[in-house]
Amino acid sequence: MRRLLWIIPGFFVLAAAGCLTAPESRPVPDTLPINLAHLEHLSEDVVRGDSVLRIVHIYAEAPDYHWVDDPDEGTACVDDVARAAVLYLRLYELTGDEAVRRTAEKLLRFVLYMQRADGLFYNFVYSNRLDINTTHQNSRAEPFGWWAGRAVWALGTAADVLRRANPRMAAQAAAAARRALVHLDRTWLVHYPRTRRVNGRTVPEWLVYRYGSDASSELLLGLVRLQKAAPDTSLARMIRQLAEGMARMQYGSMARHPYGAHASWIDTWHGWGNAQTQALAEAGYLESAIYEAEHFYPRLLVYGWMYAMSLDDSTQVQRYEQIAYAVRCVAVGLIRLYEQTGDVRYATMAGLAASWLTGNNEAGVPMYDPATGRGYDGITGPGTVNRNAGAESTIEALYTMLEVSRHEPARRWLYARGAPPVEVTHEGTRYAYRVFSVQEKDATRSVAVVLNLSAERMELLEGEALARFLREVTSEPVHH
Fold first, then answer.
1. Residue ranges per domain, the chain?
2. Mind listing the pLDDT tens digit for each residue in 150-205?
3. Strand blocks (E) in 243-387
């Protein structure tokens, strides 16, 4: 997480770039399924000529939650504005709310403003005068990387969602995305199908940053939407090549490190931005998405969230920070698998994963506040919560809550609480499991996520099946 440094007050300013104002004063519609109040608070509208753009301030610091910006990087960035655009576009797609659509379009105008003539994107502006930071390592346009991928995600989503409501902007978004994708081909996909061997693993060399399976996953989400809006063979090839590369960076199994996770990089897995299962499911490449959902995601639910782990040393695990950006990748990935397969187990797991936001975490603290719409910045250590509420955490929490709450089998477990994990051997079979419970009216409903480590099989047990399993395994000595 970037360091919190200084505060810029949010009053009206008039500058050469145009008239800069706070967002239009209007209540968030009561009918929306999530609370946008804090995200609206983080946002600021900028008038340039006859266009209104929207920026999203990167940080807000407790307890007052004023805007907090970074003097080295800047005030707002494509990374956050693009993910906000995806959220608003998705909300419009689901609700048809015209105010939400207009907000999405303002965010998209900022993304388009940050694109160079050659198709690449700068990331940060220094201030609400929209003075672009062209030199910081987290803002330079070259090479095609994280912020270009997120820009394509937003633009591809716009090309699909706005086809009828605003065909002109949909076409503009599609054209901008395609200009950027020229660089994807020239810089990274040109290396397809080259691979290398690293400590016994095969690593593809044609992903974003050559080995960035994580960055490639967020890009793929945009490509899938763009292909849906205006299909062509070139986009289909890009989708196939990126999906193939991500699937090849999946190693281990339920009982073998790194447990069937999609690696983020040559030698590491981390949770943030590791949206391979979500992207592969949306793209229709289900095999390795299902494998991660059956092998690695249950391990996270049973043993708890991690920040990162080494692929080469199973003892090198970093537990903190635990953040909404990692939870979204798992929860929404499982929702997409449920939507693709109809397998209710994935919806159940999605609800359990998202319950981290409602307080089912090791700090026992809700990390999303539905009363204010704040997404808190993370759990930084045992029982320690960072109560700042920046753009990334807020948007990722809102997006997760939106997608999970749409489906009753997932929503049912959104407020579950987990007992401690248990490891036990019963009749020669090794199990690791965790029981989650939620109060439903006058009854308590429970489900267990069970890892059969001997057979490398995941089970979700409820009702009599759960009761029978617990009777059997608790007759053996257990280790908590």
1. 1-139, 422-479
2. 999 999 999 999 999 999 999 999 999 999 999 999 999 999 999 999 999 999 99
3. 250-253, 256-262, 268-270, 308-310, 317-318, 368-369, 374-375, 378-381, 384-386
